[in-house]
Amino acid sequence: MTSQQVLLARQPIYDRGLEIAAYELLYRPIDQLVAGTISGDQATSEVIINAFTELGLGIVTDGKRAFINFTEGWFQNPPPFNNNLIVMEILEDTEVTDSLVSSAIKLKEQGYAIALDDFVYEERWEKLLPYIDIVKVDLQKHTQKELIQTTKKLSAYHCELLAEKVETYEELLYCKGLGFTLFQGFFLSKPQNIKGKVIPTSKLVVMQLLQELQDPDAKISDIESWIAKDPSLTYKILRIVNSPAYRVRNKIESLQQAITILGLTQIQQWASIIALSQLADKPNALVLTSMVRAKMCELIALRVQLNNAESYFILGLFSTLDAFMDRSLDEILTSLPLSKDLNDALLKHSGIYGAILHSVICHEQALWGDIRWPQLEPLKVTPKIIEEAYLHSVEWAQKSFSEIIDTPTASPSNKY
Predict the structure, then answer these.
(1) What pLDDT digit, counting tens, does each position of 49-103 carry?
(2) Domain at 6-185, CATH homologous superfamily
(3) Where are the alpha helices (DSSP H) in 214-339?
(4) Under CATH, which number does the domain 201-404 receive?
(5) Which phi and psi angles does 110 have, rounded to 5°?
(6) Burial class for 117, CB neighbours closer than 10 Å (0-12, 13-18, 19+)
(7) What is the location of CATH 1.10.3210.10 in the chain?
(8) Cα(131)–Cα(115) distance, rounded to whole angstroms?
(9) How crowded is residue 331: how many other Cβ atoms within 10 Å of its Cβ?
(10) Are strands 20-29 and 6-14 parallel, antiparallel or unpaired?
């Protein structure tokens, strides 16, 4: 952390195939959690300096492009950085001056990508639009009629359209039909329309495995037997235990050896992650979100020495079960042998478990003002602890992700 301690979060930007194309970096100084009084230039400066130096932009964005809000001052005099790593966002309240347009032309010539944030069509934008690569349109600020009119006007400029605040799959499909190619929002963490839908066999198999893995009376031999039924699951667990993270001297070639090295708790955790990752109808991004939540809950619990810290991992992981299964959490949890505390935390965000989970989800969505800080204070959970847990979790999830997903994470794109 710098002397100016910050909360930094990233929000994924998806392509039409729901793969992560980029991240928007969002930021808040810890001492200004409730309504920032920080200037725009200072905020942008802190984001860039923090990401490039202490945090490492490659870790924060997994090598993908970073969308960062730029004020006019920073837009005209940006620090030197790789034009392949940054998308400069012009804020919606920026005055469109001749100086700004000249800066845009110069930056475009240098190979930088430029985006307009929270775009609402006004004539003042017309002299800047020819130099814009991406236009971000907030769905919540447009009616359907306005959205259609906006996309028609923008079609003349051949810029890429990004839909912001996409909250449902229905909105996603609608925006795809209008020609949007990039999407930002929390629709992935929500179940698709489930009315009258039959649960596929693949999901029933995963649910059965999750039930068995969470059985408090399960023995190591039981766990081994359940995992061994799935060759892909066995293979991926062996790949994990032989990865650099575990530094084993001799190659581990049997499931029994892997269980001995990892221990029962970690085997249960990994098997649960891998089982969910094998659901073919869900994008990899949802798996990554689940892993970050799980590890973050666990790290916070470990940092403040809460009882049964390992159970916080399952808490975070299972917070996305409704999105994986396209069923309500209430329905799913009736078939899982979880404690009442975990159930209440998942359904109501109540109790100590609920306070931790709620803070993790708020941080994920950059809703830092919504975190229940008075409830966290007796637990000694501070903003700094939350931020450190987040950054470690992001790094852990990205490194682990390649071991359980057959396709490696993507390299930076030169698309924009």
Answers:
(1) 665 555 666 677 888 999 988 877 777 777 666 788 889 999 888 888 899 999 9
(2) EAL domain (3.20.20.450)
(3) 220-228, 231-241, 255-277, 284-303, 309-318, 321-325, 329-333
(4) 1.10.3210.10
(5) -85, 0
(6) buried
(7) 201-404
(8) 9
(9) 12
(10) antiparallel
The owner of tokens 């478990």 is: 353
DSSP string, 384-396: HHHHHHHHHHHHH
DSSP state of 54: I
The continuous run of DSSP H or E covering 86 comes out as: strand 86-90
The ranges of the chain annotated as CATH 3.20.20.450 are: 6-185
Strand, coil or helix: what is 113?
strand
Find how far residue 409's CA is from the centre of its chain: 14
Asked whether the beta carbons of 410 and 19 are under 8 A apart, the reply is yes
Q: Which two tokens stand for residue 175?
A: 């925006």
Evaluate whether 112 touches 88 at the Cβ level (below 8 Å): yes
CA distance readout (Å), 83 to 80, 288, 413: 9, 26, 11
Amino acid found at 356: I
Query: What's the pTM?
Result: 0.88
Residue 39, token pair as written in the block:
């200037």
354 CB-side CA count, 13 A: 14
